[in-house]
Each structure stands twice: as C-alpha cells, then as structure tokens.
C-alpha cells in the first residue's frame, strides 16, 4: 500500500538548517534564528491535516515514510519510519526525528536526515522568502 500527500511551503531568511536531531516544516509565517530545525514556513498543512489513509498507514512499524523537499531545481529526500505511537494531532507543523521520540508534531521517527544533513545548496534556496517549496510525503508498507 502507498499513500502520497503533497503540500507547499515557503523559504525564510532565518532558515539555518543547523539542528542535528530533527527537521521541521511549520504553518507559521515567521521564524526566529532559534528555530534551527525549521526548513520551511507557511506550509499548507500540518500533520493533523494529512489524510486519514496516510495517518492509518503511517501508524504501522513497517511503514517507510519518505519526505521529498523540492526548492527550485534542487530536490532532496529524507527517509524514516512510522510508529503506532504517532498521534498526528498538531495543526501547526510536522517534525521528522532521527530518534524514536514521538509527540503530537511527529511525522516520522528514525529519519536518516535532520536539518543539518540537507545540502547547503538546498538550505540556501530555502532562505529565500520568495521561493515556494514543494514537499511530498510518501507512506509505503
């Protein structure tokens, strides 16, 4: 089974991509330098807005979740895993975590990337507030 979700988000001058444990996309329009895990803002969806089919599939241990971030002509992927502990309750953001920690914002655990692992080319592009990024989420079991 495979479920795909698409969303849009925007770059911001305060995107730093320095966090070593997570990356996040938020529906908030602003970002301070303290938000070093946030790679895009003003997203069209938070985890609570994902389809019930996506959430149901992602709540399985054997579900692989892929996040594809495209900014201009640069595209990168992060791969992680689902978990029965995922609540998908948060309206304002989604977080991919390298650890197994879950909370209402967690999209996936055991991610192979945090924000610091994205290329500096992608991060530079995501610092442009006029740039619309496309983000594709794929849950596969």
Brief overview:
Helices cover 9% and strands 35% of the residues.
How are the elements arranged and paired?
Elements: E1 2-10, E2 22-26, E3 38-40, H1 52-58, E4 64-71, E5 74-81, E6 93-97, E7 106-108, H2 120-125, E8 132-140
Parallel strand pairs: 2-3, 6-7
Antiparallel strand pairs: 1-8, 2-6, 4-5, 4-8
**Number of domain units:** 1
Listing every helix as H and every strand as E from the N terminus to the C terminus, the arrangement reads EEEHEEEEHE
Q: How would you classify the helix and strand content by structural class?
A: mainly beta
Name of the level-1 CATH class: Mainly Beta
Number of alpha- plus pi-helical segments: 2
Can you give the helix content as a percent range?
under 10%
Q: State the strand order across the main sheet.
A: 1-8-4-5
Report the C-alpha radius of gyration, rounded: 13 Å
Q: How is the biggest beta sheet arranged? A: 4 strands, antiparallel
pLDDT below 50 for ≥5 consecutive residues: which ranges?
Answer: none
Total beta strand runs: 8
> The CATH topology is what?
Jelly Rolls
**CATH homologous superfamily label:** mth639 domain like
- Ends distance: 6 Å
Beta percentage is 35-45%
């Amino acid at each position: 089974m495979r479920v795909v979700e698409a969303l849009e988000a925007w770059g911001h001058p305060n995107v730093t991509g320095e966090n070593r444990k997570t990356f996040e996309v938020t529906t908030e329009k602003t970002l301070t330098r303290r938000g070093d895990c946030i790679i895009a803002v003003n997203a069209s969806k938070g985890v609570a807005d994902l389809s019930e089919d996506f959430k149901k599939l992602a709540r399985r241990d054997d579900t692989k979740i892929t996040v594809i971030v495209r900014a201009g002509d640069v595209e990168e992927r992060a791969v992680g895993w689902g978990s029965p502990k995922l609540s998908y309750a948060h309206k304002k953001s989604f977080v991919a975590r390298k650890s197994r920690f879950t909370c209402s914002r967690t999209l996936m655990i055991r991610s192979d990337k945090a924000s610091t692992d994205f290329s500096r080319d992608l991060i530079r592009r995501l610092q442009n507030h006029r740039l619309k990024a496309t983000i594709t989420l794929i849950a596969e079991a």
